[in-house]
Amino acid sequence: MRQRIVCKNKKAFHDYHIERTMEAGMVLSGPEVKSLRAGRANLKDGYAQLKGGEVFLYNVHISPYAFATHTASDPLRVRKLLLHKREIRKLIGKMREKGLALIPLKIYFINNGKAKIELGLARGKKLYDKRAALKEKQSNRDMERALRRQ
Questions:
Q1: Strand ranges (DSSP E) for 2-90?
Q2: CATH of the domain at 79
Q3: Which of 95, 111, 138, 149 places its Cα 20 to 30 Å from the Cα of 57?
Q4: pLDDT tens readout for residues 113-126
Q5: Total domains in the fold of the chain
Q6: pTM to 2 decimals?
Q7: Helices (H), 52-126
Q8: What does the pLDDT look like over 1-16, one tens digit per residue?
Q9: 105: helix, strand or coil
């Protein structure tokens, strides 16, 4: 299955340990879909929450579509996510654990033209974890460079 990625949340992998990922659909308006096709979205401060047995997406910025004929909706509006009841029940159980958050990782289109979002069940990293990850990444780069030179 081919997918066309609209945007990624690169910062999430730096700030969180991603324990599990899942795919969800989004309830969007027409101009929002057109804006996503143009690649105008930002996941940086986004998060998802469970409310009343449903999952909602907060702080994800989808820019208003410039050529929309009716009034533009709020770019930061709360959007409902579409998951199976079984997946939501699993999430409810996991979210009861302290320190877990539901973070959007990327938005993409699948073959039939539907927009999907990949959510990650994440646990926040401590500062020393972030430093260790950067140090490891740098040492891997140095080894790659040394191997290429030989």
A1: 4-8, 16-26, 41-42, 47-51, 54-58, 61-62, 79-82
A2: 2.40.280.10
A3: 111
A4: 889 999 999 888 88
A5: 1
A6: 0.79
A7: 85-95
A8: 567 888 898 888 888 8
A9: strand
